[in-house]
Write a structure and sequence with these properties.
Blueprint (H helix, E strand, L loop, with lengths): L1 H4 L2 E6 L7 H15 L5 E6 L5 H4 L1 H4 L8 E5 L17 H6 L2 E6 L2 H5 L4 H13 L3 E6 L9 H14 L4 H4 L3 E4 L13 H19 L1 H6 L1 E5 L7 H6 L5 E4 L6 H13 L2
Parallel strand pairs: 1-2, 1-8, 2-3, 3-4, 4-5, 5-6, 6-7, 7-8
The chain binds 2-phosphoglycolic acid.
The site of 2-phosphoglycolic acid has 12 residues, from strand 8.
């Protein structure tokens, strides 16, 4: 979507924050308000599952539409049908709450046990409900010899291997080098550019040249309002996946406004 419409997608991954319903509501209200003034940017917030309904535009502002403001989830079950799956939340339930985007395969979940097979199953379940998956990939170390490129390629192939082109068209890739997540600094914008080109090439090899041009690539890892404009302008990505800065109200507001001004 952002590629063809030239709109940037800024996704806030709140992780396990904030602590209270009141704080979550407050953040959602602030971001929703600033999103209405955006011209080239779409804002997505991904609160914890327990806060989704209270943060969605539908429950906060029942009648008004909320342009450029979208709901996302941090995870969806691998299960495609409801049933005896204690603790799971299905993509269909998320869709019914107004969720449009779902993060899949975040490194913090891979660390807690999500294998490539599990990531592929979550991806399939999300696509099955017509939601847009944000597939996270990223290497843990960036070696001189370029072995990290094979890591990225293998992650994409393992997750998308069984997915037909028709469905794959809606996949968004979030490139999040693990070493840059929760770090002091983001990856250099020039390196983001190089890696995003590589990701597009892997998609072109898998699905044809048109998909290489069309696939939406985000960057994530220590993005702040200060570095976001350069990552967009020099890194030439279609958007950003933002962790810590997305629960810092003034920082995320600044970030949305700054990105919206990038030519
Ligand atoms: P960070 O997290 O912005 O705090 O580095 C990014 C992420 O994990 O999605």
């Amino acid at each position: 979507m952002p590629n063809t419409l030239h709109r940037r997608l800024i996704v806030g991954n709140w992780k396990m924050n904030p602590a209270t319903v009141a704080e979550a509501k407050k953040l959602a209200r602030i971001f929703r308000r600033v999103a209405t003034s955006l011209v080239h940017t779409e804002a997505v917030i991904c609160p914890p599952l327990s806060f989704i309904s209270i943060c969605s535009g539908r429950s906060l502002f029942t009648k008004k539409s909320s342009p450029h403001f979208h709901m996302g989830a941090q995870v969806a079950s691998t299960q495609e049908e409801g049933g005896p799956h204690t603790g799971e939340v299905g993509a269909q339930m998320l869709r019914d709450l107004g969720v449009e985007y779902v993060i899949v395969g975040h490194s913090e979940q891979r660390k807690r046990g999500d294998t490539d097979e599990i990531v592929a199953a979550r991806l399939k379940a999300v696509l099955g409900q017509g939601l847009t998956p944000i597939l996270c990939i990223g290497e843990s170390v960036r070696d001189e010899s370029g072995a990290y490129l094979s890591v990225l390629k293998d992650q994409i192939k393992a997750s998308c291997g069984d997915i037909l082109k028709k469905s794959a068209k809606s996949i968004i890739v979030a490139y999040e080098p693990i070493w840059a997540i929760g770090a002091a600094e983001a990856m250099k914008a020039e390196d983001v550019y190089e890696t995003s080109l590589f990701i597009k090439k892997v998609f072109a090899d898998l699905y044809g040249a048109d998909m290489g041009l069309k696939v939406t690539v985000l960057y994530g890892g220590s993005v702040t309002y200060r570095n976001a404009p350069d990552i967009i302008a020099i890194g030439k990505v279609d958007g950003l996946l933002v962790g810590r800065e997305s629960v810092n109200a003034p920082g995320f507001v600044e970030l949305l406004k700054a990105v919206d001004l990038v030519k």
